[in-house]
Amino acid sequence: MKIKTAFFCQHCGYESAKWTGKCPSCGQWNTFVEEKVQKDIPLRNISWQEEKENTRSNNIVNLSDVSGIEEERLLTPDGELNRVLGGGIVPGSLVLVGGEPGIGKSTLFLQNALMLKDITTLYISGEESAQQIKMRADRLQIKNDNFFLLTETSTQTIFQEIKKLRPQLVIIDSIQTLQSPLIESAPGSVSQIRETAAEMQRFAKESHTPVFLIGHITKDGSIAGPKILEHMVDTVLQFEGDQHYAYRILRTIKNRFGSTAELGIYEMTGQGLRQVTNPSEILISQREDMLSGVAIASTMEGMRPMLVEVQALVTQSVYGTPQRTVTGFDLRRLQLLLAVLEKRGGFHFGMKDVFLNIAGGIRVEDPSIDLSVLCALLSSYEDIAIGSNICFAGEVGLSGEIRAVNRIEQRIAEAEKLGFEKIFISRYNKKGVDFSKFNIEVIAVGRVDEVYKGLF
Ligand code: TYD
Ligand code: MG
Question: Which UniProt keyword terms apply here (predicted)?
Answer without folding.
Answer: ATP-binding, DNA damage, DNA repair, DNA-binding, Hydrolase, Metal-binding, Nucleotide-binding, Stress response, Zinc, Zinc-finger
